[in-house]
Amino acid sequence: MTVTLITGANRGLGYETARRLIKEGHTVYIGARSAERGQAAAAELGARFVQFDVTDDASVDAALLAIDEREGRLDVLVNNAGIWDGIVGVEGVTAESAHAVFATNVVGLVRVTQAAIPLLRKSANPVVVNVSSALGSFWAVTNPERHQSHNAFIVYGSSKAAVSMLTVQYAKALPGIKVNAVEPGFTATDFNARYPGGRPVEESAEVVVRLATIGEDGPTGTFHEDDHELPW
Questions:
Q1: Residues with catalytic roles
Q2: Up-side HSE of residue 62: CA atoms within 13 Å toward CB?
Q3: Which pLDDT does position 86 carry in this prediction?
């Protein structure tokens, strides 16, 4: 069975992605900071739980060691964990808030990916999916036909632009591992609770699942939205 780790999977997009991949036959490990919420989600889904915080080296290393000892490899890593500061425009942006967002969205992704690389290299078809955003696409935020161009998400958008660059760089550095980014779309989850009108999480998970289940001839170093590629 395909062994998959999804970060930040105790609710929202990560939870729905886990549900779908379990249905596809994957053995799914969901990672979360809260043991209580993570264990509850794993029990509901029929998944396995590993507790870790993407901002903490020791907890990430311990979680990947536990997967290695139990499974001997990792086939799919979905870097889904992320936060945003809720700030549109410049008012309220601080160095501290920027540090917190980048610590999770960017440095956390690097931390988990680096810890996972030895396990991914043991897989016959290793895949990494980075959950990004069109707010991190230079094309989308400068295209007046895209809603991402209408407001300035200074810190969050910049953090997702960094995720996009990390995707390209990891794809180049790891030719044996397929590394892609996805834009799941504006989704009705707790993450976006203050902004109504998001689409169902089931719809947004489609692109994550599609890239998490690519075959050995699948793409790498690409950015996807729904059923098509998204310009960087």
A1: 156, 160
A2: 12
A3: 81
